[in-house]
């Protein structure tokens, strides 16, 4: 079966996953993490993509981002991917592909899933056993939302302002949201929707999306089941 084109529409938040080839490491030092972040910042500005949240793991990374144009995310990911591979290969004396094929993505219903997706990203290092708490991990946007530091890459989604009337209240509410966590069903839904390219949201949200694109936005009842994947 031919692979569906990516589901990408301007103005909606998108959850993206890019993995290393064969799950190999894509970062070997702190400088590598910093360089990818600098590429994301430069190209998000260039292609008018608002990056709301991110987490960089040893062998993959996640973004939560809203594009202003239909091709903004693809242009961002292509530019970042090519530049980073060239940098990484030159620095580490290697050649060939670094990525496991093309990046995966889909769009999500903001009201229902945006804050949940942000917590899911921030808790990725905790689930992987890298740190005990989200605040202990250096390579995510958690610190920005919890008031630990300012991150120039991050553009908060408007839903962040609903968390409180002051910066302190919003930071405390977001930290509590992450502390509450994400259950296994929610983890799987967020992972599989991105990997399979199906929209994640309620029935009305999905129906409205379908009006805006000829591309099918959810699997049909008779379609293949989701692939079984490990939440990331």
Strand content: 5-15%
Looking at CATH, which topology would you report?
Alpha-Beta Plaits
Instruction: Write down how many β-strands occur, each being a DSSP E stretch of 2 or more residues.
Output: 4
Structural class: alpha+beta
GO molecular function, one term: DNA binding
Protein name: Transposase IS200-like domain-containing protein
Pfam family, one: Y1_Tnp
InterPro entries: Transposase_17 (IPR002686), Transposase_17_sf (IPR036515)
Describe this structure in words.
By secondary structure, the chain is α+β, with helices and mostly antiparallel strands. It has a single domain, classed as Alpha-Beta Plaits, CATH 3.30.70.1290. Helix content is 41%, strand content 11%. The protein has eight helices and four strands. A four-stranded antiparallel sheet has the order 2-3-1-4, with helices on both faces. Strand 2 and strand 3 form a beta hairpin. The longest helix is centred in the middle third of the chain and has 20 residues. It is globular, with a radius of gyration of 17 Å. It comes from Polaromonas vacuolata. One of its GO terms (molecular function) is transposase activity. This is Transposase IS200-like domain-containing protein.
Secondary structure layout plus pairing:
Layout: E1 14-19, H1 30-46, E2 49-56, E3 60-67, H2 72-91, E4 104-107, H3 110-122, H4 124-127, H5 142-145, H6 167-180, H7 184-196, H8 203-211
Antiparallel strand pairs: 1-3, 1-4, 2-3
List the main descriptive attributes of the protein structure presented here:
232 residues; alpha+beta; Alpha-Beta Plaits; four-stranded antiparallel beta sheet; 8 helices; globular; Transposase_17; transposase activity; DNA binding; Transposase IS200-like domain-containing protein
């Amino acid at each position: 079966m031919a692979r569906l084109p990516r589901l990408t529409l301007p103005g909606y938040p998108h959850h993206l996953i890019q993995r290393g080839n064969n799950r190999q490491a894509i970062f070997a030092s702190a400088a590598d993490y910093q360089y990818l972040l600098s590429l994301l910042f430069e190209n998000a500005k260039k292609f008018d993509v608002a990056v709301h949240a991110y987490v960089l793991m040893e062998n993959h990374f996640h973004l939560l981002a809203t594009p202003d144009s239909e091709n903004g995310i693809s242009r961002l990911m292509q530019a970042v991917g090519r530049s980073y591979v060239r940098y990484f290969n030159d620095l580490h004396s290697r050649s060939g592909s670094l990525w496991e094929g093309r990046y995966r993505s889909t769009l999500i219903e903001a009201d229902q899933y945006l804050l949940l997706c942000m917590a899911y990203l921030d808790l990725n290092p905790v689930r992987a056993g890298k740190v005990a708490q989200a605040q202990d991990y250096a390579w995510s946007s958690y610190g920005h939302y919890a008031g630990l530091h300012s991150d120039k890459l991050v553009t908060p989604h408007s839903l962040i302002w609903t968390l409180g009337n002051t910066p302190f209240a919003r930071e405390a509410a977001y930290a509590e949201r992450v502390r509450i966590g994400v259950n296994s069903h929610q983890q799987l839904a967020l992972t599989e929707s991105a990997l399979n390219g199906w929209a994640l949201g309620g029935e009305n949200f999905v129906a409205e999306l379908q009006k805006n694109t000829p591309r099918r936005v959810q699997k049909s009842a008779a379609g293949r089941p989701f692939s079984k994947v490990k939440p990331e």
